[in-house]
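User: what does the whole thing look like in 3D?
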Amino acid sequence: MLRYTIRRVLWGVLVIVAVSLAVFVLFGPVLRARSDLSPARIYAGKNPSDAQIAQVEENLGLDKPVVQQYGNMIYRLVWGPSDAEKERLCPGATEERCQELVGRLGRSYAKQRSVDSLIGERIGVTVSLSLVAAVMWLTISIPIGILSAIRPRSVFDRITVTGVLIGQSLPIYYFGLLALYFLTYKYKIFPQGGYEQLSFTDPWPWLSHLILPASTLALQFTALYVRLVRGGMMDAMGEDYVRTARAKGAGERRTIFRHALRNAMLPIVTIFGLDLGILLGGAILTEATFGLRGVGQLSVEAASSLDVPLTGGVVLFAAVLIVGANIVVDLAYAIIDPRIRLS
Amino acid sequence: MPLLEVSDLHTSFSTDDGVVRAVDGVSFTVDRGQVLGIVGESGCGKSVTMLSIMRLLSARQSQTTGSVTFDGEDLLAASTKGMQKIRGKEIAMIFQDPMTSLNPVYRIGWQLAEAARLHNPGMSKAEANDRAAEMLTAVGIPSPRERLANYPHEMSGGMRQRVMIAMALTNDPKLLIADEPTTALDVTTQAQILELIRKLRTEFDSAIVFITHDMGVVAELCDDVVVMYRGQVVEAGPVERVLAAPEHPYTRALLGAIPRAGQRRKRLATVEDQMEAFLLSGEEA
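Assistant: Here's the predicted 3D structure for the full assembly of 628 residues, as structure tokens:
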């Protein structure tokens, strides 16, 4: 188990390095080769002189050889910003203030702040949104999927299958806007967009701001997971070991929950882990629809202002989450499925 | 009074292509301690008959009529709860494929203990575990205590079938239904499992319904035999009589399809060939 974990983590690191290289090449040399998209030209003001552009390039470190630029990026990622960089970008500032200005993921051109602190600011929204949505879609889809599977072709099952089709076909921005219009503007049941910090003494403001966006986000996942649970349960209920359980004298409930469900849930755990990993990297459409300033919105802002370090930083951050989720899923799988041997 | 009396049992399935009558008026009886063999080719309704008796077929996809009386109780009229008390306690069943019949995510010990505790609500976990280990010993699995911690995938097919047998006999059932328990196993293991069943037969004193398509097994193990063809019983009687002097042409065809040592350079007759020859000859059954 330990050896497997180590190997798995090393693989993850390798993937991250590959992603970082791709990010660097795409947002570095490739962009710079197109003079109209060169970051330095964009940030040097209107009609810059060549000297001004050169000055900006030097400030951004873009004048260095490509390999050195990449080396700097990796060095900063692993060991944090160098003293020289801190000295240049936040002279005389306190350590705390300096962390806001320079960080491991570099510094946003447009916002003049460290990518780390920008993501840190936004991650709370995205985590809250994803987790509330995940709780919603799991608590809804698992019971519906089970009920539908144990009564195939029943009225309930047919309604479910139709509902799944509708749920999967409704785009987030469409359903989200409808929900916003009716539940917020017309009937004022939920507060208008935005986000409230989670407070443990009174979690309601936090939750009430999240219910609408989280249900919107959860809608498509609910539909997908109902299908997964239903399919998995139908397969499991047809297995020989379920017949064995019945032949032993186990009741229907015991057969369903103890014998079939545990088997049916195995693949769903995998998919859930990966979905959550992807969501934590930013739920772009939902955040945009409900004006939530999360990581997804940050990546949109970054891309639309050609903010190279910020875009790259968010991409790298999302990659780490997805790779991390993969590792967690693989390890969890080994624990819940005895047939998987880790070696 | 026989232990099990099945009369005029019909089971049909509704499919998209219409109604399939898998069991079509089957009757037979099993006495206490008797071993009854049910033979017939694949698809003749042997397994469906047994699943109908145990009421293990989905009520939504199948209809069963007729009467099944077990120990004086009408099983087809029994409540769901009543059936649960009978399954695994009065009538136990072992299946064809031991590779898929055990739940892959639970330990052998858990699955064996479950069989014990389902029918003995007051039984503690420790007692159930002891019973599980005792049963593993009975079916000839060495170091049973350690084996309880194994998962099914850690065992061979023969071992798993032994576990299935142990599980079935946990509550000393009056009737054991063995649905082709050796078909999925290799020849050596088959012999071991048959030997085990023969040994346990005397130890546990259960009646056994042994479903098979192997006439050799019938000859060795069974007292009586029922021959099924296309959902119907075509011949029934004591094994010696049926094997020595089969009355029905299908039984003769079935026996004729057994390869014999010393029989050379002759194509083995299939049941279809022989039945065709019989039908063309216009002979009366």
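In plain terms: Chain B has a mean pLDDT of 91. Residues 246-285 of chain B form one domain.
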